[in-house]
Design a protein that fits this description.
The complex is a heterodimer of chains A (262) and B (397). Chain A has 262 residues and is an alpha/beta fold. Chain A has helices at 14-20, 43-48, 63-72, 89-94, 110-116, 131-140, 162-170, 229-236, and strands at 5-8, 25-29, 52-57, 80-83, 98-101, 122-123, 145-158, 178-182, 188-194, 197-207, 217-222, 244-245. Chain A has 8 helices and 12 strands. In chain A, α5 crosses α6 (131-140). Chain B has 397 residues and is of the alpha/beta class. Helix content of chain B is 27%, strand content 21%. Classes of the chains: A alpha/beta (262), B alpha/beta (397). The interface between A and B is large, with 71 and 74 residues.
Chain lengths: 262, 397
């Protein structure tokens, strides 16, 4: 099972620890082209790692940025790329590398997934589904897909500098990676900002180990950002972890008030 | 091609939008649309909408832009065929399966890629072009430079938002509503958590992330120059007064740009009208530069309900010069109002003696929807609007 775990890397030193517990495939967020990850890596740093590697590029890019990136892609020594912006599709295919599509919050049904699977090697399924929906999807997809099982779920991606704006407006000292809570105290989330915008993450760590029995899964994804190595290792070893929940796995969302819902 | 594209939450709004100058409207069906709690259109109503619009040589686009879950796709094929059959001009889609289904079914209606797909670069736009897309609705984050290069490299029709509410996030890249309230934002259930006030790390000052509205009055000419074809106003749940006012303003702006008669003074007049009508601050957001703290709200906002919309004209008796109007907000004889017509410039109008339906004099119009008769020398037409006069064009000249 652990050979199917796909683990994002925060520090290069952690790789050795993960290898000791049987993890073989790692994700590296590419510097300047990814957002919402605890650490990002230069191409040279990624290339020096001796392991199965995937490069994560999850920013939405404008034309100038994507043209610059396309020139860099051949220099990145990895098995494949995880992308959010489908503008990268053709360029990566020309390199004969694997392409894994990761459009946050999209890909919530098997038909859409099967359509994307005509273009890419695999697709990350949305985090916002119930276990029942995920189970149905994995039973119907034409290729194995990628399922999140661990980490702070990303719940918002903004191009705005939400923290900088706040601290500037009130002339307060800047602080990053903060928790915000609504007045009633019922809603909490992390906010993380960098020069490409702001990401919001769920308050609790998503613990999706109940999904490990799903079939037709290429990788089970562990996004380790902002989580101590020890907690990640505990999860991998099947131990319980603090401040975790099952996200929306048992909470179907509604969308029509007083009308037809899912 | 330059198109002014208006939102319409129901048939009444659709008719008003088209009358007041929209070249096209976008509407949602009862299913598959991202404003799940708007009234929305049944297939019969969409058919009527198309008939009405096509008679005016105008167009109707239908949003099919939810991010569907497994069960949501059960009837999608039949739905698309029906939309095609009743002569909808285009569908606005974000989901890849629906795009491919459109191609497979060889539908006559156009495929437009929704802003939910967050298209910011020409490579992405070209991908959608290979799927058959005729038009891309750009990400709201697209800058002037982004739009220019996408147009140059793709020659696709480009649609961009010019007015209305903004998301804090990239469209579609937000599920705060799902986590906070259990309502799925990408299926039309957004509970607008981004408009809440938050405590941040124990600071006394509230954290807020709510953007001000978008307002592109000052940049329409620049948008035309970089290749925007369709100028889209947000707000399928807005009132007929809002739609009539906003569409009328942009219609005048676009026409004046085309015939080279737009002045800074007129633009300022338009800005004042729009700001009062929307009752929210507005900025150009991402078009010229990345937004900073001036482009969002802090300390909440003082929401004063706009009561400028006095009445809607139902009928006009040319022979006796008597208008039948329907009250929307309080007014009384002597109030200085303005007639806003869809085919005329605004004209000052002092409220005359008011009569109820039975011909009895009344001292004021107090009851919303009350039908009132007024003598009026200005020939009025059905669906003209009587509004409080706040700004005078002559003060700007």
């Amino acid at each position: 099972m652990k050979s199917k775990f796909l683990v994002s890397i925060n520090n290069l030193e952690d790789i050795a620890e993960y290898k000791k517990v049987g993890i073989t495939t790692f994700v590296f967020a590419l510097k300047d082209y990814s957002i919402g990850y605890e650490n990002t890596f230069e191409i040279d740093e990624i290339n020096k790692v001796d392991a199965n590697k995937l490069c994560l590029i999850n920013r939405l890019l404008n034309s100038e940025e994507i043209d610059s990136l396309i020139k860099l892609l051949p220099k990145i020594d990895v098995m494949g790329f995880i992308i959010e912006d489908i503008g990268l599709l053709d360029s990566i295919k020309r390199l004969n590398k694997k392409v894994y599509l990761f459009i946050n919050h999209f890909n919530c049904n098997y038909a859409s997934l099967n359509t994307w699977l005509e273009y890419v090697d695999s697709v990350f399924v949305s985090n916002e589904l119930t276990k029942e929906e995920l189970s149905y999807i994995t039973s119907k997809v034409n290729k194995p897909v990628i399922i999140h099982i661990f980490g702070y779920n990303q719940i918002m991606y903004s191009r705005r500098y939400l923290l900088t704006n706040y601290y500037k407006y009130y002339n307060l000292p800047y602080k990053n990676n903060v928790i915000i809570k609504d007045k009633a105290g019922s809603i909490s989330m992390h906010l993380v900002e960098d020069k490409y915008g702001t990401i919001s993450l769920a308050k609790n760590i998503f613990d999706g180990r109940s999904l490990l029995d799903l079939d037709n899964v290429l990788y089970f994804y562990l996004n380790t950002s902002f989580i101590p190595l020890a907690s990640v290792l505990d999860f991998i070893e099947g131990k319980s972890i603090l401040n975790a929940d099952e996200g929306l796995l048992d909470k179907p969302t509604i969308f029509k008030l007083g009308g037809k819902n899912d | 091609m330059i198109e002014l594209l208006a939102p319409a939450g129901d048939l009444e709004r659709l008719k008003i939008a088209l009358l007041y100058g929209a070249d096209a409207v976008y509407i949602g069906g009862v299913d598959y649309s991202l404003r799940a709690n708007a009234k929305n259109f049944s297939l019969e109503e969409i058919k009527e909408a198309c008939k009405y619009a096509h008679n005016l040589k105008k167009r109707v686009y239908v949003t099919v832009n939810i991010v569907p879950h497994n069960n949501d796709l059960d009837n999608i094929e039949e739905y698309l065929k029906e939309l095609d059959k009743i002569n909808v001009d285009g569908i606005i889609v974000s989901d890849i399966y629906i795009m491919k289904l459109w191609a497979k079914l060889k539908l006559q209606l156009e495929l437009h890629v929704s802003t939910q797909a967050s298209t910011l670069n020409y490579h992405t736009a070209l991908f959608y072009k290979t799927l058959g897309a005729k038009r891309i609705v750009l990400a709201r984050e697209a800058s002037e430079a982004d739009i220019k290069i996408i147009k140059e490299k793709t020659n696709l029709d480009l649609e961009a938002f010019i007015h209305g509410a903004m998301c804090t996030s990239f469209s579609g890249r937000c599920v705060m509503s799902n986590y906070a309230t259990g309502r799925d934002s990408n299926r039309g259930g957004c509970s607008q958590v981004c408009r809440y006030s938050f405590n941040i790390d124990g600071n006394e000052k509230d954290f807020e992330m709510m953007p001000k509205d978008l307002n592109m009055v000052a940049y329409i000419e620049d948008m035309i120059k970089v290749g925007v074809n369709s100028f889209k106003v947000e707000g399928r749940m807005r009132s007929i007064y809002y739609i009539a006012t906003v569409i009328s303003v942009y219609r005048h702006i676009i026409d004046k740009i085309v015939n080279k008669s737009l002045t800074k003074e007129y633009t300022k007049y338009c800005l004042d009208i729009l700001n009062r009508c929307a009752n929210r601050d507005s900025t150009s957001q991402f078009f010229k530069e990345l937004p900073g703290y001036n482009e969002q709200y802090f300390l909440g906002r003082n929401e004063i309900s706009n009561q400028d919309f006095l009445a809607l004209v139902l009928d006009y008796d040319e022979k006796n010069k008597i208008a039948t109007i329907e009250e929307r907000n309080y007014f009384k004889p002597g109030d200085v109002a303005e007639i806003m017509g869809y085919d005329m410039d605004a004209k000052e109008f002092v409220i005359p003696t008011l009569y109820d339906e039975n011909g009895k004099v009344i001292d004021a119009a107090r009851h919303p929807k009350q039908v009132i008769k007024i003598p009026c020398e200005i020939p009025l037409k059905k669906d003209y609007i009587i509004r409080l006069k706040v700004f005078d064009i002559h003060d700007y000249l």
